[in-house]
Every structure is written in C-alpha cells, then in structure tokens.
Amino acid sequence: MPRGTLALLLLLVAVDPTFAQAPAVSSPSPTGQVRCPVPTEAPQELLQNPDDYDRIIRYLSLVERYCRDPQRALEEIDRFPWTDFRDGLAYLAHRRGQMLSQAVNKQSLFGGTDWFVRVVRTATMLHLDRAVAEPTGTETATSHLHWSRELVHLLVNVEGESAFRRDWYIVVSAYLQGQLRFAELDEHLSEARAAFPDDAQVLLACGLMREAEASPGGRAAIATLRQRPGGWRLQVPDPRNALADAERDFRLALERDPGLHEARLHHGRVLDRLGRPDEALRELNVVRAAGAEPRQTYLAALFAGAVLGRAGRLPEAIAAYRAAAGLYPQCQTATLAQSYVVRRSGDREGALALVRQALDHDSDADCVDPWWLYGFGLGPQGDALLDQLRAGVRR
Prior knowledge:
The chain is an all-alpha fold.
C-alpha cells in the first residue's frame, strides 16, 4: 500500500473506528443491524491522484451510514458531489470484475462476495430511497434512479442475486407507473423483460403498463407529456393494440404462475374490454373464489357485476355488486352500481334506497376505493414493495 494511502487510512480510522471493522457476512448480526464497512484500500488504477481515494472512502462511508442511520444518510447525500458517486461506482465495478474473474478470493474479508453484495445492495437502495423521496420527474430523482440502476447492473451474473434484481425492477416499475411516467416506464420494463423474459411478476408489470396506456387517463397523460419541451419518444398507443398486448402479458404471467391473483384479476378486466365477456367472467370468478386479498376480491366482484349486467343477468349482477359492497361498505362505487341494476330490474324504490345509502357515506373521508387506484397498476402498492426490498438490505 502506498505510504500516503496508509496515512490517510490511519487518519480515517482515528476519526471513525468503523473503517477498521471487517465486513459482515450475509447473515444478520445479533442486533439485527448490518454493518457495511469500507475496504482497507482502493485499487491502484483508481488512485490517479489523492482525491480519488478520498472520494471512494467518502462514498462507501455514506453507504455504511445508510445501514446504521438511513435518515441521516438520506439527509447527507445531497451534499455529496457527483464525482463521489462516479468514483464509488467505478471502485465497485472494479471489485466485481476481480470477483467474477476470481482475482479476489470469494471468502476473503475485503472484496469478497459477501462484502461486495452487501455494499452494492445497500448503495442501490440508498439511491432508490433518495429518488422516490423527490417530487415527480425532478433532475435529482432522475439522477439518483440512474445511479441505483447502474449499481443493480453490477449484480448481473453474481450468484444468488437474481431475486433482488427482479424485485428492484418491480419496485421501480410501481414507482414510475404510480407517477404516470410512461416513457421511462416503457424503457425500464423493456430492460426488465430482457433480463427476466419468463418471470411472472415482470410479465404482470408489463401488462399493467399496457392496460394503463389503453385507458383514457393513461392516453391523456402520454399526450400531455409529449407536449413538454424536448418531446417524448413514446407514442400515444392505439387502445385496442395496447389491450391486446396487455392480455398477452397477463396470460403469459398466469402460465408461469397460475396462483398470481393480480394477473388473473387484470386479465379478466382486459378480456371484458376486448369484447370477450364469457372468458372475462371465468377469470373474475376464479379470483372471487380463490380467497384472494379483499381488494382483489372486491374488484373482481365489481367487474363481474358489470359483465353480468351487460349480459342481462340482472339478479347475478346485483349479487356481485352486493358482495363487493360488503367488502368495502364505506365506499360508494359498488352500491351505486347496484342501484343502477336494481332500477333496470324495475325496482325504483329499491334503487333510490341504495342511492341514499351511498350518499350517507362521506366518500373522501371514509373510503379509499380500490377502483380509484386500479389504473395505477402496482403504484399504490409501491411503498409496501419498497419496504420489503429495504428489509432485505437493512436486516
């Protein structure tokens, strides 16, 4: 080790003893808190001048701090220059090359597989957390999402990291669709599908994007964004083509995972929109009978009621809407839909009673109706999905 590097390391250890600790292995510590210490030295080819080493150490120290005190790390990250992120990423990329070529012993303390995976996962989540905390489409959000993506790419071909990478793609797709950022979402899911062409969750995310693009709201969002300075490459899709693509993706997802209720729910809805009501009803009834989440069962009953009502099967439609209303009694949608079918059946007083029942609820105060959020795909579940991904890093 060069004398200047050793002197700098000794100074850093004196200021912060965590620099001298050995990296944690993949199992959690007894306190449930994982340490992500920095390496003892940087590769010679990155030490073009003394500042290079300093930037690498500062960046990896920030990553380690995110393990111990995420809030403090997220507050401090905006004070870091981009050169620190660049050199930190270059250092990790170098270590990855050494590791995959077996130039670094996989069981060694510094630079081994366990250390590398822990640090890259944590750095990936640090930048993703910063991106999602920022308002929609700002330069800061876009930049930190870019760094998170570059880091997760370092886990390609690293044994045992496919699940983390796949989950990262799903979380980011939920984040982008929740903000109606369709151009970025399209590029993101194209990359995800190339990496995981047969994964049911990725196919589900692709179908959700296409279904949303076929909706009036999705098409209006794309048309509006195209008018911004700089333009957008994404074209406003033909609704029928987008629905056909969504149907294919949901069907493929169900072939890989028949128990994926979310895919079956959306498949049923899309089949109905494509004018295939009998197939739609079969899919929706499977979800209703499967003991799925209340949100999924509610939406399946709501959509089944619409299919049955159009088919003139009014008693069955009323029963479906009644079942949906029973799951979310504080919400108005199912009750009002039921009132419409009851009126069609000739019961005017019964229909008025249901309207009064719906109006008794202050919808804004008492209800977060799953129907309102349906067009955002996995977006409403984004926080929960992000928490699950964080838990695997911070545990």
